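SUBJECT: A protein chain and its fold
Encoding: whole-number codes for local backbone shapes
Chain under study, with its fold:
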Amino acid sequence: MRIGTKPRRTLLRAMAFLSAAGCCVACAFSAQPKVKSEESLFLDLQKSGLGSLNEVEEKKKFIETIKLEKQKIQNRMLVNVYENAFDYYRAGNYEDAKDLANRIISIDPNFEDAGMLLEASNQLRGSLRPGISEKLMLEDRFKSSLSLYNEGRILDAYQKMQEVVKLSPNNIKGRYWLGKMKDELCEYYYKKGDQMYAKRDLRGALDNFYSALLIKPRDARIVEYITKVEDELRQETANAKLKSALEYYAQGNLRAAHEGLKEVLVVQPGDAKSAKLLAEVRNEIEQGFISRGRKLYGERKYTEAIGEWGKAKPYTANLSYLDRLIARAKEQMRLEADDKRRRAEETAIRAREEEARRKKEEEERKRAEADAKLKEAAEGPAKAKSASEENRRTAQQHYLEGLKYFQNSNYEKARDEWIIAKQLDPGNIDVESGLKRIDQLQAGAQ
């Protein structure tokens, strides 16, 4: 039955909307500035109510989940579109079938059935007798499949026969040969897997054995072989990871060795040797952090010490011991902070006391100076008189000393003594006469 015009328009509108949405999304992303880091991308998640996702890895997983769900929705939609395209094809409306198949491929180039339908629609559209043309096309594909089968190319033959059955589900010959080829295809995958196993390509062998298992899910022989190969692959993978971990350990890269050994135990959980080595490496890493923390503690770098002991936590089997070390460091920090505060307060008190003492001494000094000035002002005339009498007596003594030098004709010494006497008693006439006498004598001698 031919599909009506109205459903066709609706379907084409849906496809146009999907293509337009894809273009809009592409334009929107191209218009935005390049994101420099994943963290800046995650900031936008706050607007979507995802602020509770505080770990970067959790946000990555969430974004991947969104991508997977989006892909599932797209796949379901494309399958629905393909079913409509196939309805067009069965109704002989090859033009519309081609258009829809083209749109599917523009969204998902790997949609194989859409490619097959597009090829068939291109062959049949414009045909004057589409029914006969379709039979001839299917017969050609059928013969091509048998030809490939006779050449031993079972996989290619099976795929070609699948096209025949998909394009003509009621084709009895095609369904019979597809079933026959399916059984042989299972054997083909099994033999290919066995060959790859002989070459020690374990992953390739597993791929083929699983392909065979999809055809015959209850074949005990295939299941047994898969179990054997998976065990060997796990052991081979574990050995490679163990070797890498030991190399890191030999280089002194303990944390890389630790991660490598953890990966070994993920692959082979029961590997006692790796478990024992992992425990030793964990202990060595822990002791390294503890040792560095103790050194920093001894240098009174308590915050850095706490940081080192905190880093040891993922590797320890005795978390309470690390907690005690950290608690002790925090207590020491508190005690030293209290002591520093107390010493600062004592210093401030001493400074205030010293300032008060200095001010007091300054006030006492000023008061003493003022008292002394008052006393000096009161005793000034008597002191001046006493000082004048004393100067005259001293001047007389220097005069007599000078007189002795004069009598001994030592005029220079006499002059010195009489000059001092004159300074002490400027009004002494005897001193003045003696100095004039010396001047006269020295002038007559010249």
User: Anything to note?
Assistant: Residues 1-53 have pLDDT under 50 and may be disordered. Residues 194 and 205 are 6 Å apart (CA to CA). DSSP finds 16 helices and no strands in the chain.
